[in-house]
Amino acid sequence: MQKLARHAQELFGLHLNENQLSDLAIYERELLIWNEKFNLTAIRDVEGVRTKHFLDSFSCVLAWREQPPQTLLDLGSGAGFPGIPLKIIYPHLKLTLVDSVAKKVKFCQHIVESLKLDDVKVIHARAEMLGKHPKHRESYDWAVARAVAQLPVLSEYLLPFVKIGGTMLAQKGERGLAETQDAENALQILGGKLRQAIPVTLPSVVEERYLVLVDKVSTTPAKYPRREGVPSKKAL
Length: 236
Known about the structure:
CATH topology: Rossmann fold
Distance between the termini: 43 Å
Number of strands: 7
Strand content: 15-25%
CATH class: Alpha Beta
Shape: globular
Number of helices: 11
Strand order of the largest sheet: 3-2-1-4-5-7-6
């Protein structure tokens, strides 16, 4: 864990205290145990978890620097990434985790209870349904997703959740820059404006990574997101 702490400090300027490292150790242990039964993530070794889950989650701090969100929605959270590691480093963050797979939702609930995390909601739902809900629509400072969909599709999932003046954050791989061009039409329709794509470097990871930031500049039309399955089949 000390190596993880050093990398977090060197790469992202984060100082992890003993309580935070303890929480991450519990999280890591439970993830490896549950993964044997439920196949939550393809990453099954300690180094992989620490680099490709924990550090990758921490990389989001490059997007907001000294102004972390007050409210964050993590869509397609899976086993809780990046939302739960971000909650561990920002205890006052009001976090909503959303996933459509029941076993992943159950695991996230287990971790939230195990770590006694306050102000965390774990919701079993699809983006197309939840994005229409008045309680969640245009209600969040930031909405984030990692490895959920191509950017034109992901924009239709995420932007309806973001309040005007807020930001959508897409954690992307090597096609991140190309996807920003593919998403120009979708962003214009949905009320978003591309701000930047920030390159991310992780230890021993050769693939390019990017944080794609989209500002919410106008209201998303009420017809979006379209009904379940349509955004992925007919991208804007």
